Write the structure tokens for this entry.
Amino acid sequence: MLKDTLLSLSQNDRFREFVLQNKIARSASRRFVAGELLDEALHAALALNKQSIQVALDLLGENVESEQDARNVTQDYISALDLVAHTNLEANLSIKLTALGLDVSRDLCEENLDAILEHGKQHNIFVCIDMEGSDYTERTIEIARRAKQRYAEVGTVIQSYLYRSRADVEGLCDLSVRVRLVKGAYQEPQSIAYQQKREVDQSYVESMKILLARGNFPAIATHDEEIIKEACAFVRDHGISKEAFEFQMLYGIRRDLQEKLVQQGYNMRVYVPYGAQWYPYMMRRMAERPANLMFVLTNLLR
Ligand code: FDA
């Protein structure tokens, strides 16, 4: 119930404006967001690299409504690629297709994506296409598959709460497309998505095993300790190298577990979001865990 309310509010323009103007909410957002500027993201990324944790940089922003905005975001992503290359940061890039203009036109979005991937190719930097709400699932997978025919260093995300996820994972494995497996962060109806945590987890574990057994350097992106233990046991029992996959977590979440996995010799990558458009991202993090809402409210009341 609270989760649904927070996810609905994440799409509410008036509430977004109210929160974005609020200084205290902005400072509370730093719990999950590296900052509003690329330099701040660099600072956070360098600190993680020092702890032997790799980074996925994510410029926040989604659902841009004009061609010019989509081109501006594309340039910002390209600047992030340049920064990674010039600073030798252990980082790759995560992008959202609706930030590249998918709501304006698919051609525009693919043109912008090509510009980013071309730039990524020059620097040999991997680019992951994030998965958004289910209106975009089919198009995102199609675009990722097409991009993979032209660029080696591109992958996408599969959400285990969707009934279709297992078939998508198998299809992407067949094409050697790199997959980041997540549970899914949006509000989806029962007609297409599991609603119970137990079912989402079970679907996650099924897809995870397929990816670990035959995926192309999959990313097991979760903070769920039980699932992480199951992944570790699965690779040990099947003789799969720790070098063949990576764990991923979100900035500011379960730092203890991030460090522990690094100490155990696993690859760990942390998703570092930055930018002025942090509102929907922060609302999704609060929807995942009510304690995060309490954290923000406590700051607001201080
Ligand atoms: P689950 O929600 O079951 O939580 C398991 C445990 O993890 C909790 O008990 C708690 O201890 C901890 N935890 C989880 N979320 C927390 C939070 N917000 N704050 C504090 N503790 C928390 N989604 C999507 O739809 N598209 C995408 O492209 C991505 N990309 C992405 C990248 C990376 C690197 C990660 C880790 C996640 C995503 N996600 C995503 C988000 C994902 O779908 C999911 O919503 C979150 O990861 C939370 O799910 P968990 O797997 O952690 O499990």
The domain at 38-277 is CATH 3.20.20.220 (TIM Barrel). The first strand starts at residue 54 and ends at 59. The chain has two domains: 1-24+278-302, 38-277. The chain has a mean pLDDT of 93.
